[in-house]
Design goal:
The protein is α+β, with helices and mostly antiparallel strands. The protein has three helices and four strands, in the order ββαββαα.
């Protein structure tokens, strides 16, 4: 699945595994009776959503977050299971998209122009002159 610039990465529903549990977040007594916390797991090594190059990037970039080969994100930010599902999926997709993105090209060093170097030196000399003039015979 190709994801060009400006195009959001979308992981297939069939590749996602969901678990729900009671949330410790906001909700009062409602929290004690509802499974609103959403946890989504995804296996990057077997995913069809990524090209082989992207898969390698993701596996390297997110290796510290992988547990038994699965990338897991949980959300209990909201009071409803539906919103927590959307939040967890969105965070997972953002994380994968960032990891799969091609690295930025290295910065090519530039040099200061002759004029800017001259301006800097002139400013330094003006400042030195001001300080010299402040020195006086205080004796």
């Amino acid at each position: 699945m190709s994801n060009g610039p400006g195009q959001r990465l979308r992981l297939p529903d069939a590749e996602l595994t969901w678990r729900f549990s009671r949330s410790s977040g906001p909700g009062g007594q409602h929290v004690n009776t509802s499974d609103t916390r959403a946890e989504v797991s995804w296996d990057p090594a077997t995913s069809s959503a990524l090209t082989p190059v992207q898969r390698d990037r993701v596996l390297v970039a997110l290796r510290a977050r992988l547990e038994s080969g699965l990338l897991t994100v949980a959300s209990s930010r909201y009071r409803s299971q539906h919103r927590n599902r959307e939040d967890a999926r969105s965070r997972l997709e953002d994380m994968v998209a960032k990891a799969a993105a091609a690295p930025a090209p290295p910065r090519r060093p530039t040099r200061a122009s002759r004029r800017s170097r001259e301006r800097r030196r002139a400013a330094e000399q003006r400042r030195a002159q001001v300080k010299r003039e402040r020195r006086g015979d205080w004796g």
